[in-house]
Amino acid sequence: MQFKQHKTLPALAALTALAALTAACGSQAEKAGPYDTVQAGVITAGTQSEQPPFAMADPSGHPTGFAVDLMNEAAQRLGVKVEYRTTNLQGILAGLSARRYDIGVAAVGATPERRRNVAFTTPFYWGSTAVVTHRNTPFAALADFDGQRIGVVAGAVQEKFVHDRMPKAKLVKFKDQTALIGQLVSGGVQGVVLGGADADQYVKRQPVRIAVRQDSTQGSAFPLRKDGDPKLIKDLDAQIDAMIDDGTYVKLYRKYFDDPVAAALLKERPRLTKQVTGTDLAPKP
Predict the structure, then answer these.
(1) For residue 4, how many C-alpha atoms fall within 13 Å in the half-sphere facing its CB?
(2) Which end of the chain, N or C, is more open, meaning fewer C-beta atoms within 10 Å of its C-beta?
(3) Is residue 140 classed as helix, strand or coil in its secondary structure?
(4) Signal peptide position in this chain (predicted)?
(5) Mean pLDDT of 70-86
(6) Span 191-196, mean pLDDT?
(7) What's residue 217's pLDDT?
(8) What is the pLDDT, as a whole number, of residue 170?
(9) Cα 136 from Cα 188, distance rounded (Å)
(10) CATH architecture of the domain with residue range 128-215
(11) CATH 3.40.190.10 domain extents, the chain
């Protein structure tokens, strides 16, 4: 039996080829965004909801805080969209390594150990480390916590602080700051170690106080994928510097902090020196 050749087949083949070419061009157009990201044309950001004042959820559940505001302003200036996904510190770092996120938007200590697995912008904040205790306890020095249960967020730089500075304390790890503070208030731990700015926020809202405060050994920065687009890091740093030059950074800093800018941050972001010299934000002698 013979079959007659269908006259529409050549036309159909041509249409199919055209459709494939169009799809390919569309795909290339999507990939032709400003950066090589997990999602074409979008920066996927892992953030936190319980790290005041850097990254937290507002009453509507939307991300807010100093780090979030900085990122949103930088993204707007770069003309890119940011899509936030809420997790915890360990989730941010693991998500970057697993290529689920392009960036972590929170205050993440840029330690040498972390630099083995993720890239960092230049620090955008430099603070202190605080040992927080219940308002009714007598603790006033690191040695006072010998033998006591001291809580930290698992994987946070404060974990190393306890190992190095409070070796006789009993380290207890928690998944996030909400659990950490909850156990401190209820008496499950006798102290917790936090970044100084975080601690200041809890002192305002909970029956806790800062027993010891010491300078941090590293600044807070945005972590990014180790295999990510180096142009994104360069452009984010450039935009933060531009925000420093036009006063936007100082405006945001005053929104969230009362303390002067740390001298260590001025070494990392020297443009900031001009903005704070002669003001109440200048580092204390």
Answers:
(1) 3
(2) N
(3) coil
(4) 1-19
(5) 97
(6) 96
(7) 86
(8) 98
(9) 14
(10) 3-Layer(aba) Sandwich (3.40)
(11) 42-126+219-274, 128-215
